[in-house]
Each structure stands twice: as C-alpha cells, then as structure tokens.
Amino acid sequence: MALNLKRKRPQASASASIKRRQVNKPESGLEDGQDTGFEDDAASFGGFSTEQDESVESNEEAGDEDQQDAAGNNNSGLPDDTTNPKKGGKPVKITGSELRSAHEARDLFMSSSFKLQTDALFPNVRPKSSRIPALDRFLFALHSVLSSLSSREIKHPLDAASELQEKGIAVPYPDPPPTKETNWKVGFEKPADVNVVGSWANKCSVKGQDGMKFGVDLTVEMPASLFQEKDYMNNRFFHKRAYYLACIASAVRDEKRGLNVTVHYHSTGGDPRLTTLILLPVRDKSETDFTSLNAEIRIIPTLTTPQPFPWHRLSPLQSNLRFSSEEQAPTPLYNNAILLACTPKPHLLAVRRLKSDVPAFVDALTLLRIWANQRGYGEGSRLCVHGFEGRGAWWSGLLEMLVRGEEQEKGPGRTGKRKPLGKGLSSYQMFRAALDFMAKHNFEQEAVFVKSEAGHRYAAQEYRGQHEAVFVDSSSLVNLLAGVPLSSLDMLKHDAQLTLDLLNNSTATSDTFSETLLKDQRGIPSRFDAFISVDISSAKVDQPLTDQGSKVNAVLISLASVLRHGFGNRTKALAILRPTSTLRPVSESHPPASHVVSIGLIYDTEHAFKLVDHGPAVDDPDTSFTTFWGDKAELRRFKDGSIVQSVVWDVKNFDERAQIPVRIVEYLLDRHFSVPSKAVKTWQSPFDSVLRLPESISSMIQQNTGAAAGFKGALTAFDELVRTLRASEDLPLSILNVHPVSEYLRYTSVFSPLPVQQELSYILPKCARYVPVFEVILEFEKSGRWPDDLRAIQKIKLAFFERIAAALMQTNGFRRASVVVGDGVTTSDIQDQASLEVVTNQGWVFSARIWHDREATLLDRILNERSHISKKARKNDEGQTKERQLALEAREVYLRRFIHGPKHHRAIANMSHRFSAYAATTRLVKRWLSSHWLLHGYVSEEAVEIICASVFLGGRQYGVGPSVPGSKERGFARVVEFLKEWKIEEGLFIPLYAANGTEQSPPDETSKSSAGLHKAGAWRVRTEEDPDGRMWTSHGPDNTVALRVRALARATWDLLQAMESQKLDVKSLFIHPTDDYDLLIKLEKNILPRYYQNVRADPRVWDRSSTYANLQPAEDEALRPGIDPAQLLFDDLQRVYQDSIKIFYDCVGGDTFGAVWDPSVRKPRPFRVLGGFSSIPVQKDEKPKDKGVVTLNDTAIVSEIQRFGAGLIANVVSQSS
C-alpha cells in the first residue's frame, strides 16, 4: 500500500479542563433599583443573569451536563444558564471582584472564551509543582559536589586534555585547537559561585515542542585567577572555558559522588564556543530522581563580576581573532559570545524586576514562547528556523523593551522611537503588542536598545555594519539577535503578520485560539511555496570562518545573505531551516556537522515569476550587480529605449516559469558556493510530472498538429467558434452569448488539452485516442415564437442545431458538425438532451447546447400549479405523478447546466486569473482524487474547484493576506490539510462570486433547499449563489465516501511530512491501495482510450516496436470524441448494482474498478419479491430452522459483470473472504 489509511484517535482539546460555573444575582447592600455599574457589562459579556432562574429543579437534574467543556459548548466561554440552585438553603452570591473579572475578560482579552482557554492552557505547559521537590534535592546535592571540587594543577592545554582523555572525557576545544607551540596554560579551581538562573529560577519555564525537556540553567562562575588579561584573544577564553567544563563533567560522572546522572555535551546552534554540560537523570526511584519532571540541567560556565577583560576590547568593532598579521577584520559574533558569559545574572535580575512590576508578564511570556515554539522559533525534533535556537533571552528581552521602552540614542535630534507600554496590560495585550512589533519593525534599518538604568556601553554606530540586526539588552552586554540572519527575521515578521491578521479577523470561522497557540504550524508542505534541500558539504566561502565558530555556520550566514539579496521582492519571506542541535557523549569534543540544510521560500506572486531582473543602467559605475550575478548578467535594450544590466530567465512553458525561483537558488549556490546542482533537491518536477502526458504520446500528437496546444490554444479555438457563430446570417435568431462551461476552458482540467486531428487515428495507438470535448452553452436573443410546450421546445432545438451545423460547414474552419440526441440512459422527452458536436480542422471538439429560459417557467408550472387537484386524485393519478418526477429531474438538470454552470465557470476562470497557483492547485487535487478512484463518480469536478478556492479565499479575501499559496505544491498541501480536518457536518462557505473585497456573510443556515435537489450528499459546499450547498454535491459523496476522503487525506498528509527528511516519493501520493476492496475488476489496457493518462501507465502497452511493424489500424477505426468505454461501463454498473455494490474507478486513465459489497445485503434475510438485488437461498444445513431465507448471490453478480464488460474486462479478482 502506498498510503497508510489507519485512523488516529483525535486528541483532546487543551481547553477540556475548563469547567462552567453558575452564579446568581448578587446580594449587595444596595437598594433595589440602584445601578451597580456592572449589570450592563455582565449582560454584554454573555452569561451572567440579573434575575434568579425559575427552573431550579431542571438545573439540578442537568447538573452533571453543565460541567462540560465551556470552550467547546459555549462561544462566549461562560454558561448560558447563570443561576445555581440554593446551596445549603442560601443562594450563591456574586462578588464585585467576580463581576470585575468578567468585565476585564471582555475588555482586556479578545474574548472571554479566549481568556478561559488560555487559563486552561497555562497549567499544561508549565512544570508540575508536585514533581519539583526531587529536582530541588538533586540541585542541593549537585551544589555540594561542585563546591567541594579540588583544584587541578596548571598544565599545557594538550597535556591537560590527555589526562582527561584517559578517563573518557574529551575537552571540547573550539577550532583552531591549541597546539604544541601554545604558550599559555589551563587550570581548574572550584567555582566561585553556583546559581540557578534563567526561566526556571524565575518560574517562567514553558514546555517545548516534541517532548523537549524543561531546561534548568545552572551557572558556575570560573574564578578570575584562571584568566589573564589577554585571554579574550584567539579563542583562549573559550579553550580555558572548555577545559573547565570538561573537569566538571569528569567530577559529575564520578560514581563515588552518587549523583547518578548521565553527562552530555551540547553546543547551541552547532557552535563549539557555546558548549554546555547537560545532566540527565537516571530512573532509580531515589529521592533525587527527577525523571518524572522531564527536565534537564544545563551547566554554563560564566565569568565573575567584575569580569577580567577590558570592556572596550569586546566592542563589536574590535578584532580579537588574529592568527596572522593580516587579519584585522572585526569579530562581532566572537565578541558577543564572550559577553554571553557575563549575562545570566543580569538577565535573571531584569526578568525578576519585570515580574514584580508587571503582573501579567509571566503569562505574556508564556503565550509568546508557545506561539514561537509552534512555528519553529525554538528547539524541537523538527526543522527550526535558523538562528533562533537558544534565544530564550530574546523573547523576555522583547517584552522588556515594550514595557521599559527604548534607550534614547545619542546625537542631535535622535530620540527613542518607542515609548513604554503600561504596566497594567493583560497578558493578551502584551502578546499582541509583541506581535505588532515583530510584524512592523524594520530589523535591517532600525537598531533597538532596551532602556537601561546606567546607559549603554557601546554606541549604536559600533553595532551598525557589524550585525545584520541589532537588539541590545538592558544590561548593555549583548546583542540578542547576533547571528540571526535577516532572512529568519523576515520569516518572523511574516508569521507575526499572519497571526495579527487572524486575531483581527472577527469574522473568521476557524478557532482563533487553536490556530494561534495550539496548532503546530511547522508543517513544511503547507508553510512554504518551495522547499529545497541542499548538501553544503562541498560549499566554499570566501570570507574568514573564524568569527562564526564553525564552517557550517559561516556557510549558512553567507547563504542566507546571498539568497535574500538574489530574490529581492520575489519572496515575502525566506527561511533557512535546520534541525536542533543534539546531545553528544562527553567523549566527543566537537558536535556532529549536519551538511544538509533546507531552504523554504514564500513567494510574492506578483514578482516571483518575472522573467527579467533589472540592474543599473549601462553608464552606472556600480559593478555590484555584475559581480553578484556573474555571467548571467547581460546588457538589454527595452522598449522605452533604456539599456540596463539585466538577468533573463528563459522558459518554454508555464511549468518552467513556475520553477524560476528554484533555478535562482541553484544558480546562486553554484556561483557563490560552488555547490553543484546535483546537490540541490526539490519536489516541483515530480509534481509537474503527474500533470503531464507521457512524452512519447504528447510529442506524437504535437508533431502532427500545426495548431497551438494547451489552454491558450483551446481558448483561441473557442474564440474562433464564437466569432463564426455570431457572424452567421443563416440562423433564425441571433446568438447573444456563447457560455463556456468546460474545465478545459477555465484552466482546471487535469491535463493541458491537445488537439487531435482525424488523421492521427492511423498513428495513435488505441490506448491513446481519447479526444476531450469542450461543453458550451448557446444563448439566443429573446423571441415570442418559441412554443409553450417542453416537448416541442426540444424539437425546436434539434431544428436549430441542424441550421447551425449547416452554417458551420459552409465555412472553412470546421471539419464536422453532428447533432447528438440523448445519452442512451435518459428517456425523458421534456429534459434537455440534444447537443451539437463540432469538430474543427485543427482537431478541437466542442459540444454545444441551447439555453431557453422559458423551460424553467414551464417546469415550475408542472411542479407548482396543481393546487386545484385533490390529494386523493393526485395520489391515484399515476400519470401525473410520473410527469412530476420527470419535471423534478429536468429542473435539476436545467439549474445545474444552464444557471449554475455558466456562473461557476466565470467565477473559477476569474480565480485562475487572480491567483497564479489556483488552477495548478485544482489540477493537482483533481489528479489526487481521481488516482484514488473518487473523482467524477462520487466527487464532482465543480465541488473540487470550490474547495480548492477555499484555501485562497478562506483566510483574508481576495488574497491580500500573506497566507495565500503561491505554488501548486503548497496549495495542494493546504487542501489536503483542510480535508483531513474538515468537520463535514458544519459545511463550508466560500465567497466565490463576490464582486469586490467587502466582507461576505454566509447565507442563512435555515434557508430552504432548492426544489429537485437530492440530499444524498454528505458535503455542503455553499456559495452566495448556492446557499444550500447541494448543487454540486447532491449526488455525492455520501457518508462512506466522505469518510474515505478524510482517511486518504490524513494518510497523504503523513506522507507529505517526509519532505522534511528528504524521503518523500511524490508518486506514492497518487498510488491507490487496493487491499480494502472486495473485488478488483481488471480492464484490457490496450483498448482503453485514456490509459495513457494513467499515473502508472506502462509505455510498453502503446510501444509498437514490441508488435509487428506492418500491422496498421483499420480505416474504419475513427476517433470518437468524448467516448471512454471504461467510464460508460462504470456508469452502467453503478446504475444497475447501486443497491448491492459500490464501485470505484479512476476516471483519468484508470484500468481497474474496485468494488465493495454492501454489508447489509450480504446478511441472510427473508425472501421478498423485488428485493432490489440478486439473491440466492441460504443452504439448509447452515440455517436449519429458517425457511425462505436468502442472501446476496455475489457469484451471479460477478458473472453478470463479466458478461456486461465482455471484451473490455480482462478478469475479476475476488479479495473478500
């Protein structure tokens, strides 16, 4: 099986612990009628009652039900019934604080339900207080061990490392490591101080993603006597720090000390300079076993206060890596890494002051950290945004800046740009303020200095030019965004804007709380328009690597900068993604280097696919453009006469144009990093291949056809047909409009159309002779000469078709025009059945029908104007009953074909023009549904097109928001994600026909259904023109198929996640598992005219080199437009055996039917006449007491099916027991 269809049990909502409570009218000391000022607020808040409930008894009976989850049962977050039975003979009172809380919940939060949900969320992301004592006991024991450590003799770095190596401890010296010529020594003394710092000490810890452990940061101050004044140079500080850390690791590992923990190294962001020691508990059920807490202890060596190095030597402008006399470049990242050893205590005190000054700070920080973790701005087992690992101080520093304000910059006219916020804000308000800052702040141009009591140590000019982004903490020690690429900050801005749009959209139908805080937003397929995996092991960087700490980090920083510059306005955001750094044994000195990096692109569709990048004019002395683009840059003259440097991307078709951003990545990687294209892996081409016909067939057709192919050629042929019809003077009535209603004419057919000329019937194999037919509707001018009889109208249509056919054949552009009557199934003479089949000389085929609006009036007359007939007469009049049924069916066909069909076509065509990725997304989803045997037979093409439109119009209308997919791959993933989560009982509303950007409210749920529409469909896909949502889903899918679609979507979504690990096989998404079917009906592949469109089409079926070369097709084997024998057989079997078997089939090239027996008819039941299915008596030895009991005669049905499809069916395989 290609897909795993096992269902997963839905997870409980995070708000399931919220309990509803009931309150009565407050009994304060106020007189009757006196206004407390809270009643109006409470009423508008939703839930509080100012009158005592009279139905006390009913409340007592329903007491248990009232304890359900408020978030799931009440939109307001408070109970609908606000009274409570008397408790102990006295009514429960509402206090003033309760009313104030209700008032604040409405005003200080987005909604009362949002507050209740956040309150229920907090306990689930914070450590359990009952599990903390074991950790405290262990910390006391660890403190005793660290405080009693003995000093070590000062030695040469290599000798000291060799001594520890004998104990299995490697010293994590950063590169370049010490050598024999090193003239300084390392030593160890017990820590000057040991402190718990960070979020654990301030009780701000938040549970990480993917089961990540709570972090307990423990600083050990290295005595100042171990350092010399020049140790800030050439990694000497980091070498001594590494040896100090290795000595602690050796002591903690000593079993004699009884700590019973495992010891690991961890290098944040893969930087050996930031290596720390991680202690993990061993489950032994002792008093110090804190395994149940799911926490880890991080030992961080720090410098004492005052620190031993001159402050001015650690300025961002200073160069402290001088391994040769020529190296004088500033080392801002290196200097910042040294300063990090001074920050834990100041950050601890700053957060503690914030906690005391701002009551909601901890909750706001919790919301911000949860939001960030759900989007990959932190640690986790999945890919995370590069630069944000270990940035816990940045999130608290961001809130501190909002509360304290910015430092006033020195200089004339320079003032702080941002004033502090109030300290009494709620957690939600502070959370929104942080989002607003991230969404609107220009990180590239504007430096941020958090307000500091003593002022900042380094001037703003010293940071600018050395760091891409500047955000200096209140202690004036470090830049909290040092090493974070601007591309990652662009991604942060993008996600923050998305969340703000969601919070600001008051009409959003989705659960805002879940979308903001509960849903994992790290899914690669639905997050990025293009996802690229690159092996950078062979990458070369011109700039020095020492400041970044490792070669990989240097490549990533340079790569982010090059790609951001190369894309310009083609992308809204660009993210470098990496897995979180992992733990390693203390026997390994350096972290394992991960050479596979991922790149995520979010397109700006207005610019992403432009063919030309413009540079400076020819007389501009600036050479940066040609230096950056190299040989790709060339001089071009444009229509306005200007001659400028340009980069041109040549494409041959739309698929190649959609790959321009990926080609840019490949070119820039090759030019600037010498990374070959074979090291770059993308998934666009495999997705393109499932929408493309086999090359051998398409080339055969195009070589023998001179007409333009594709959607453009089809529309050109349609325009030519319209011009010919309107120019004809032989018609009795003038043609007002010709309405296209074919998916081939609105860009949403699975395959791009190709014209097939009659002469190709002697060249094309039988399995590749399908000719698509384009449906159009003819609308004539109004006339009173039409008859007032439905049957006569159908005859008049035949006369019109004959006249139109004669007129077309008098022109030179058409090969054949034939009148087609009926479909062989419908026998109604009042229903529209006739059509005109027109074949152009180029090979295009059109099927035209005539729309006469008088038919609707006549059908309504049959359905409605019968009130004068009594019910008894109406019941006994069988003829009239049959006519009414025929009228119902005819009206349904009329509405779908002539009213909704053209409107739907225009709306979808408009969507295809408005959103560049919409048409390809729809084609991909149709291909997916058809390959899983659901399209057309159970899910209509129109329903698919509307559902696909929901991912483009669902968030912010008309694509003005940043969430609109920019590629078919992302659009496909978004549709699959929607289908796996869609609650079909709620239906779906899409403002498909909206003429402008105004808000569209969903139609009334209680609106009456249109006459004649069946209610068999489980889906309700509603639009403004179809308020019932049944026009395109009335005949399916039913509940069985709807659940099947959901299971397939979930399995497909799981497979799509393999893109993150570079293991995705795109074709496996479209391979249908057949193990669940009772019957598999195999068809003869070589005579199926659409077989060449099969996902797994075998070229040997149509390869004539494997047959006799002199065999040619008979002359009478002409092409038959629109004829698909497999589809006709499927329709017949579905109609004949609808009560006993459900059949599935791929309408796009399928060669197998899958059938499932109806389990209800396989059970023995009493025999009755006209039972609705083929039955057989149950053997008496099986049921000796039952007489006249029958069951399904499946053997006979299989035999009948084989006779039905004689010559078309190869064999039938039974898989049921």
UniProtKB/TrEMBL annotation:
GO CC annotation: CURI complex; small-subunit processome; UTP-C complex
User: Under the GO molecular function aspect, what terms does this record hold?
Assistant: RNA binding
Sorted alphabetically, the Gene Ontology BP terms of this entry are: rRNA processing; tRNA export from nucleus
**Where along the chain is composition biased (Acidic residues)?**
29-42, 51-68
Composition bias type Basic residues, residue spans = 1-10
Q: Which domain of life is it from?
A: Eukaryota
Please provide the record's keywords in A-Z order. Answer: Nucleus, Ribonucleoprotein, Ribosome biogenesis, RNA-binding, rRNA processing
Record carries keyword Membrane: no
Q: Where in the cell is it found?
A: Nucleus, Nucleolus
- Bias (Polar residues) occurs at 999-1010
Please report a single Pfam family linked to this protein: Nrap_D4
Q: What is this protein called?
A: U3 small nucleolar RNA-associated protein 22
What is the species listed in this Swiss-Prot or TrEMBL entry?
Answer: Neolentinus lepideus HHB14362 ss-1
